[in-house]
Specification:
The chain is mainly beta. It contains 4 helices and 19 strands.
Amino acid sequence: MSSEILFKFITWFALAVFALYGNHGKTSNNKSNYTPKKIIWNEIERGLFYAEFDAPLKSKVSDSKISVLKIDPNYFSFELLTATEHDSLRRTVEQWSNDFNLVAVINAGMFNLSDHYTGTGYLKNYTHINNGKLRGNFRAFAMFNPKSNDFPAMNIVDMEIENWEYYLSNYNSAFQCIRMVDCNQKQVLWKPRKPISSSMCVLGTDIYGNVLFVFCRSPYTANTMSNFLLHLPLKTYSAMYLDGGPESSLYVNAGDTIIEKVGSWVSPGYANDDNTYFWELPNVIGVKRKVVR
């Protein structure tokens, strides 16, 4: 087994354990030690905002920064892009952006190590089914491209509380992953057998209907991160885990602004902060400008 394949296997195994026990957690509202009173947003262009700030708790690894891209669905649309639907080529987030003219790209959940293409949970885009099997312990759905204007452009559906089958029938694009903040703005506590920390990216929405792409290179547990999201002044409405370790990626290319965020650490598995490049991903969420009249 090559060192790269071994590295990927160890990383995937740690994240699989991370996912396995992050299911039907109880809720909590414990506050972090420190929360900034205000977040300073940089407006990249109309409807697109970026902020980077210190995490409420400092990590021993990397810069302890949290990066958030805030997207107004009135000005941007969302696409679910998969290698299985297109040319079977996995791409880095930068390559996905360049090839499909995307303003921003982030992981669309985790994918199976067995084939490096199918999502770990259910994943569909219009008539294309990447993975048609529901994963029982993944209790959140990201749904977008609604079939009518009666539904939000991006919706994080809580499978424990909401009628997810009804919502799924009314959206063209959807994938499963793990709850972090439920639809009642409560923290979902994960209970792994051993503490697991990693770089990670998270999908969220705020109380105003904006979509949040969240990235953090410094390793934190999922419970710590969900606590951050609830008590930072982000006005978080709901949130779900996307991916972690060196696979976690965020890329923005809008006008004169280019933002590249690359993950690394996952422990147990790969307790190392030396990854400096984007990994190729089979499934991503892409952001495109709308033609606003």
